[in-house]
Specification:
Belongs to the phosphoglycerate mutase family. BPG-dependent PGAM subfamily. The protein has about 230 residues and is an alpha/beta fold. It has five helices and six strands; from the N terminus they run αβαβαβαβαββ. The protein is globular. The two termini are about 40 Å apart.
């Protein structure tokens, strides 16, 4: 429902001016700017922590976040905001990255928390959450996709650059949905800690994937996926 034609009440169209007026009204609802979405997976964290507050970044994880922050800063882009998952490992990753991007506002959200987005196809033997998780987490992660991944608002005049710091399952699901691939295939992708995934959303709604899980800026001995 973001196509310009879907935003117009065609019943109110002036019959005298016809297509000319419709074209004018369509232009009023067309997006003008491109959105650049940078999806960052959190850095390595303490897997032994039982509660979220105990799952803090490891020393290597903090190094990874520093490297990711430096990489984003080196792009020379004026970022508009950093939206991050409210989970500890994503929040800590954001704090370290933001040191390299002074002045960029940070926004925390529960929508981007880790979870089970949808039952994977083909299924895997090593990861089988309770079925109820797909219903609970899936609706939330889908809501995150719909809330954050869309073409620019018609009032947006200039291209925007936004960073989203979250989790592997969330990022993989979002990539599938954004590219209109079957979302059940999300588990076929693998993402390193601190990796950068870059989506571009054009004014006409077309989406392109520029990078997926890039960690080429990290030394090989700093790369992990856990």
């Amino acid at each position: 429902r973001r196509e310009p034609l879907a935003l117009i009440n065609l019943k109110k169209k002036n019959e005298e001016t016809g297509e000319e007026e419709l074209s004018s009204r369509l232009n009023h609802f067309k997006a003008k700017a491109t959105r650049h979405i940078f999806l960052i997976r959190h850095s390595q964290y303490n897997l032994d922590g039982r509660a979220d507050k105990d799952r803090t970044l490891t020393p290597l994880g903090r190094e990874q976040a520093e490297l990711t922050g430096k990489r984003l800063a080196s792009l020379g882009i004026k970022f508009d905001q950093i939206v991050h998952s409210s989970m500890t490992r994503a929040t800590e990753t954001t704090e370290i990255i933001s040191k390299h991007l002074p002045g960029v506002k940070k926004v925390s959200t529960d929508l981007l928390r880790e979870g089970a987005p949808i039952e994977p196809d083909p299924p895997v033997s090593h990861w089988k959450p309770e079925a109820v998780q797909y219903y609970e987490d899936g609706a939330r992660i889908e809501a995150a996709f719909r809330n954050f991944i869309h073409r620019a608002d018609v009032k947006q005049e200039e291209d925007s650059y936004e960073i989203f710091v979250c989790h592997a399952n969330v990022i993989r699901y979002i990539v599938c949905r954004a590219l209109q691939f079957p979302p059940e295939g999300w588990l076929r992708m693998s993402l390193n800690n601190g990796s950068i995934t870059h989506l571009v959303i054009r004014p006409n709604g077309r989406v392109a994937l520029r990078t997926l899980g890039d960690t080429g800026f990290m030394p090989p001995d700093k790369i992990t996926r856990t």
